[in-house]
Task: inverse folding
């Protein structure tokens, strides 16, 4: 399927009289790597929460492959293939690294409580398959040497990789990343950029939200959000030369 | 592996021989432990795996017991139907009440289940046409397994323990499978779980129903074992037993509710010369264990040992 | 059903409502001051009443002295709870669930101790103002009930004044709103928390003493009292202690309605059902405006 995967059509939101977003309009083409950049307080997180389904927009629509997502829960959107990460990586503290990644395959698997109870061959095969796939993905994200380690004991960079592995293992349709570089060292950011390029080249559609200009270099198209509105769109180079964008970032960089 | 095999066989042999060497009194307590363990498993897996506190378990225990007793003694139906009715009622109540209250977070949910228990207790007393009120129901007949009437502690012992182990095995399978992963994920980070399509509303409701079913089975077995049931067996004290068994045994491993249940069943007996003092001990034990593991009763994640 | 009966039951409900208001007030004070939902609050009431009973019946002390003793017991229990249970748990970053379970355990422990020391039978206290009644129109109200209501109102008023006008009250308030800020201006946050629990214990034991002449006291009553207090507190908005008064009255009147339409056995059932419903539908209380999800 060609064309736009995700379309934001006039999305707006307000809390307690304060207008957080207005008339946000852009799209993410299938197979694209699109970035949303803006200083803190520009409404990026709210926009992200709206697209991923955590809050409904007061105005406008979010369309996925032409269909309006209104009313669809976070879980429903996830089943459709829209997954996201969080600004502070959320991992399952008491589960091992492998188990964390296996959860990423939950939405692709079907066996239920009764089948698990009776240890049917279907349920056992499914769990084995989940473990195998998870193991393979752990290798890709550099987690292979400590798959049995409990997630709560990982460093920030490892948690970030773990979260990425988990959201990616189920071959999502759209991967939404919320400030993925926060808390990472320079080397880790480079490694993250490489991972994102690799995933995108393999066909994954990515929407990236960040205020880190360096990370944004991986994006094909960048939209700049300021005070709830898109003020500019284009390639990263264009944005860096755009006077309006520079103004918004003065003192914040 | 061979050593494990030998240990297991020795363990089973020891279990089988116990009733022949122990006084009947203790066999009786071990039967009660097995019954308690099932209800305790219900509370334990829900708390340890999913992070949900079910303080209403004594109520579901009562529903199972009264359903069986009423169906047999008053309606003259078979024991199987009594069991089924108990399970059905518990499931319906758990689903109906669980659906709205499971959205509540942590301590409010616990209080809601406690309120539910108070409602159950009041209804058990008030609906005396069903439960016999404060007089209870007596004359619940013994059940038969494979043609043998289970009319002594020893016979019941040989029946109930394999049953308990089978039930534990079934629930442990759930915790080891895909659903178990989802439960623990939901417990550790509800947001991240949602993003992985773990529908916590539905899953929590299903798990709560499972917990209630375990309480109900426990109650049915209890009714058939003791033959006479009254409302005193279904109060907060019993709910604390169901909570204490897995807490003492350890919440990480669902099987640990068995040693916990044995402890809970034996202590009142051992302390019986001192009357109700065991309750003081239980209250203290509950508090101390919780205070020692305040960060969620699972302890902090351990660096070297595996998960959960 | 005559209107006399209706008013009679209603009067009883309002009287109960003030007791629930006090229990809810104590709960709310503790919650606002330390974020702990105290499942043993009802047991504070029971302890206060029991100590009063023991001092009166066994030690043969004057009633007033016994009441003071009961209140002191409540205060002491609150202080001990904070020092021995709450503080160590907070230091270890206990979750809300763990804290609640610990208070449930504490409540069970207190009930067990009472059972072992004084037994199962319920005890009563003499009514305040003698066993006399007052006729208000067609309704007969015990003098005790009127004194109960007056006392409750005084306690609520005193509490409001305490938080607003006294140094200690303001310090406690500051410590709960912003512990770090409070520390920087020299407030001992831990001590303020102890004071909060002492206050909760005092209010709880007053409630217990006031209700015992009417309905008695026994070891197992703690849970129902706690849950009704929770209902009152939540109805009034957990973080607004004064709201617990409105909450308590609503609960008391709802119970009366259940007693009138169903039977007296349904009094507790109605209260518990109401608690569950309000936790789901209006967890922020009736004064919070729109019904928001949460809790």
Result:
């Amino acid at each position: 399927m060609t064309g736009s995967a995700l379309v934001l059509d006039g999305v707006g939101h307000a809390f307690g009289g304060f207008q957080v977003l207005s008339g946000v309009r852009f799209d993410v083409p299938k197979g694209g790597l699109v970035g949303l950049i803006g200083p803190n307080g520009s409404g990026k997180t709210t926009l992200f929460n709206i697209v991923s389904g955590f809050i409904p927009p007061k105005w406008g629509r979010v369309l996925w492959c032409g269909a309006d997502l209104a009313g669809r829960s976070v879980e429903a959107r996830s089943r459709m293939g829209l997954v996201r990460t969080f600004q502070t990586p959320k991992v399952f503290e008491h589960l091992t690294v492998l188990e964390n990644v296996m959860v990423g395959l939950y939405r692709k698997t079907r066996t239920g409580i009764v089948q698990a109870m009776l240890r049917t061959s279907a349920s056992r095969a499914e769990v084995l398959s989940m473990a195998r796939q998870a193991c393979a993905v752990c290798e890709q994200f550099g987690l292979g040497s400590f798959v049995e380690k409990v997630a709560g004991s990982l460093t920030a960079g490892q948690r970030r990789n773990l979260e990425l592995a988990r959201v990616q293992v189920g071959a999502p349709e759209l991967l939404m990343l919320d400030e993925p570089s926060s808390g990472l060292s320079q080397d880790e950011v480079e490694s993250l950029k490489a991972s994102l390029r690799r995933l995108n080249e393999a066909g994954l559609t990515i929407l990236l939200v960040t205020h880190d200009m360096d990370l944004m270099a991986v994006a094909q198209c960048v939209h700049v959000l300021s005070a709830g509105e898109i003020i500019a769109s284009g390639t990263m180079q264009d944005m860096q030369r755009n006077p309006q964008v520079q103004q918004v970032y003065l003192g914040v960089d | 592996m061979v050593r494990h095999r030998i240990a297991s066989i020795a363990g089973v042999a020891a279990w089988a021989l116990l009733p022949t060497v122990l006084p009947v009194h203790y066999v009786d307590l071990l039967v009660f432990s097995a019954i308690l363990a099932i209800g305790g498993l219900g509370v334990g897996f829900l708390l340890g795996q999913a992070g949900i506190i079910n303080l209403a378990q004594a109520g579901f225990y009562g529903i199972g017991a009264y359903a069986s007793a009423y169906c047999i003694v008053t309606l003259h139906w078979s024991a199987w139907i009594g069991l089924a009715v108990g399970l059905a009622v518990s499931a319906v109540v758990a689903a109906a009440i669980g659906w709205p209250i499971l959205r509540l977070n942590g301590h409010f949910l616990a209080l809601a289940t406690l309120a539910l228990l108070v409602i159950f207790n009041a209804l058990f007393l008030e609906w005396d046409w069903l439960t016999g009120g404060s007089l209870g129901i007596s004359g619940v007949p013994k059940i038969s397994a494979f043609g043998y009437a289970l009319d002594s502690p020893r016979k019941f012992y040989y029946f109930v323990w394999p049953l308990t182990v089978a039930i534990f095995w079934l629930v442990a399978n759930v915790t080891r499978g895909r659903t178990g992963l989802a439960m623990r994920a939901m417990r550790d980070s509800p947001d991240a779980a949602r993003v992985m399509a773990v529908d916590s509303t539905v899953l929590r409701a299903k798990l709560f129903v499972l917990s209630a079913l375990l309480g109900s089975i426990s109650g049915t077995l209890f009714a058939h074992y003791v033959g006479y049931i009254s409302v005193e067996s279904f109060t907060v004290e019993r709910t604390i037993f169901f909570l204490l068994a897995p807490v003492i045994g350890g919440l990480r491993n669902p099987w640990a509710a068995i040693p916990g249940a044995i402890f809970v069943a034996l202590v009142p007996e051992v302390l019986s010369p001192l009357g109700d003092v065991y309750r003081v001990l239980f209250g203290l034990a509950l508090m101390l264990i919780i205070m020692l593991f305040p960060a969620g009763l699972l302890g902090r994640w351990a660096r070297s040992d595996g998960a959960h | 059903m005559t209107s006399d009966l209706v008013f009679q039951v209603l009067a009883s409900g309002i009287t109960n409502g003030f007791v629930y208001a006090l229990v809810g007030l104590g709960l709310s004070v503790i919650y606002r001051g330390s974020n702990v939902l105290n499942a043993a609050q009802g047991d504070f009431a029971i302890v206060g009443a029991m100590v009063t009973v023991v001092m009166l019946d066994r030690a043969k002390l004057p009633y007033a002295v016994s009441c003071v003793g009961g209140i002191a017991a409540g205060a002491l229990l609150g202080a001990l709870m904070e020092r021995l249970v709450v503080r160590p748990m907070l230091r270890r970053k206990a979750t809300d669930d763990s804290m609640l379970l610990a208070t449930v355990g504490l409540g069970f422990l207190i009930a067990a101790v009472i059972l072992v020391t004084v037994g199962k039978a319920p005890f009563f206290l003499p009514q305040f103002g003698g066993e006399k009644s007052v006729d208000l129109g067609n309704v007969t109200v015990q003098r005790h009930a009127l004194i109960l209501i007056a006392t409750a109102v005084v306690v609520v008023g005193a509490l409001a004044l305490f938080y607003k006008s006294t140094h200690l009250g303001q310090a406690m308030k500051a410590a709960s709103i912003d512990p770090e800020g409070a520390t920087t201006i020299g407030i001992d946050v831990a001590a303020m928390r102890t004071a909060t629990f002492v206050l909760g214990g005092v209010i709880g034991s007053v409630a217990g003493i006031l209700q015992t002449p009417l309905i008695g006291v026994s070891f197992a009553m703690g849970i129902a009292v706690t849950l009704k207090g929770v209902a009152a507190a939540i109805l009034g908005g957990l973080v607004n202690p004064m709201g617990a008064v409105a909450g308590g009255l609503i609960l008391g009147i709802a119970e009366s309605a259940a007693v009138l339409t169903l039977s007296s056995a349904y009094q507790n059932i109605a209260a518990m059902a109401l608690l569950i419903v309000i936790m789901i539908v209006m967890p922020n209380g009736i004064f919070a405006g729109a019904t928001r999800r949460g809790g």
User: Anything to note?
Assistant: Strands of chain A lie at 4-15, 18-29, 33-37, 59-64, 67-68, 82-84, 174-178, 205-210, 221-226, 229-234.
